[in-house]
Specification:
The longest helix is centred in the middle third of the chain and has 15 residues, at 72-86. The chain has a single domain (3-129), classed as GTP cyclohydrolase I, C-terminal domain/NADPH-dependent 7-cyano-7-deazaguanine reductase, N-terminal domain (GTP Cyclohydrolase I, domain 2, 2-Layer Sandwich). The protein has a four-stranded antiparallel β-sheet. Helix 3 packs antiparallel against helix 4 (72-86). It is an alpha+beta fold. The chain has helices spanning 19-24, 39-44, 53-66, 72-86, 120-125, and strands at residues 3-13, 26-36, 90-99, 111-118. InterPro entries: Dihydroneopterin_aldolase, FolB_dom, GTP-CH-I_C/QueF.
Length: 130
């Protein structure tokens, strides 16, 4: 299966469990890995034969900037759901959401989640992946 990588989507949002996160906000980073057959696009060189990077980047940014999730797991799931619903050619999507500066005293690293979701057709075809 072919893969589209979209890395480094950055947006400011008000997501989190802590009150400060909902008031002050923070930056989030998202990386996407989209499994889709790109053979037709490779031969045709036509935009309509691939998946629109612009649309999924814009929707990911919109979800971060406008939605009020407590958990980054919920944000990741919403992004994955959008991706799978946006193009029936997408077989699988991996979404990685990172908080570059989590509000953890004495901690200077990052935290994040990575989820993998499958299209309904792919999940039915491969029960081990469900």
């Amino acid at each position: 299966m072919d893969i589209i990588h979209i890395n480094g989507i950055k947006a400011f949002g008000y997501l989190g469990v802590l009150k400060e996160e909902n008031v002050l906000g923070q930056w989030f980073e998202v990386d996407l890995k989209i499994s889709i057959d790109l053979s037709k696009a490779g031969k045709s060189d036509a935009l309509e034969d691939t998946h629109s990077y612009v649309e999924i980047v814009q929707e990911t940014t919109r979800l971060i900037e406008t939605q009020k999730y407590k958990l980054i797991e919920s944000l990741a799931d919403a992004i994955a759901t959008y991706g799978l619903n946006s193009d029936n050619r997408i077989k699988e999507i991996t979404v990685k959401v990172t908080k570059p500066t989590p509000p953890i005293p004495g901690f200077s690293g990052t935290v994040g989640v990575e989820i993998v979701r499958f299209s309904e057709a792919e999940a039915m075809r491969s029960p081990a992946s469900a």
